[in-house]
Amino acid sequence: KKSKKRLKDMLSSYQADYDFIFLDCPPNITLVSENVFRAAQIILVPVIPTSLSVLTHEKLTAFFKKYKYQTDKLISFFSMVEKRKKMHQDIMAEILQNKEPYLKTIIPYAADIEKMGLHRKPIFLYRGSSPAAEAYRSLWKELTKYRKQQLYAGKHQFTSEAQEVGIQPTHQGFGDSAERITAENQKIEHSRDYCL
């Protein structure tokens, strides 16, 4: 049977060992993707400011609505942005004008980012002071702040002790008790050291 909950069940056994589990997913929607949609807590969606990328994002949102996944799991941000390109500027302005929920941090198009594959290590380890590295630090801080606001707003009932964060897919549990919310906030505060 092609289960859409298998990954969620498998990851539950690691909750006591990890504060965060990152799941990197392809841009297409497959059975694996749907497993991630169910298992993860935050679906972090990078969007290139081009017509094709925006259309893909719209299809992803429509898929969530159609199959009744939590759309508030989707947290989008602009990536590979070339500010000198008028098309990039126009598309970002149109999306933000429509008040779509995007993070404020913008990840630029940069050779330093592309070289991560060559170096086989995070950009912080070989170009830690570069504008691209600073952009990723800013993204992480904004994401953790957003996460804390979700907890305080009581928008989700978190039941898991670990936070699974998927890059193109993610949300799920944490109990709404004060003790659990405090524990989650402590993890978020501790996580700020990861990108320093």
Keywords:
alpha/beta; 8 helices; 45% helix; 16% strand; globular
Question: What does this 3D model show about the protein?
Answer:
With 196 residues, the chain is of the alpha/beta class. Helices cover 45% and strands 16% of the residues. It has 8 helices and 5 strands; from the N terminus they run αβαβαβαβαααβα. It has helices at residues 6-11, 31-39, 51-66, 86-97, 111-114, 116-119, 131-153, 178-191; strands at 20-24, 42-47, 74-81, 102-108, 163-167. A 5-stranded parallel β-sheet has the order 1-5-2-3-4. Helix 3 (51-66) links the parallel strand 2 (42-47) and strand 3 (74-81). Helix 7 packs antiparallel against helix 8.
Q: Secondary-structure map with pairings?
A:
Blueprint: H1 6-11, E1 20-24, H2 31-39, E2 42-47, H3 51-66, E3 74-81, H4 86-97, E4 102-108, H5 111-114, H6 116-119, H7 131-153, E5 163-167, H8 178-191
Parallel strand pairs: 1-5, 2-3, 2-5, 3-4
Sheet with the most strands: spatial strand order: 1-5-2-3-4
Structural class: alpha/beta
Instruction: Average the pLDDT over all residues and give the rounded result.
Output: 80
Helix content: 40-55%
Short description:
The protein is an alpha/beta fold. Helix content is 45%, strand content 16%.
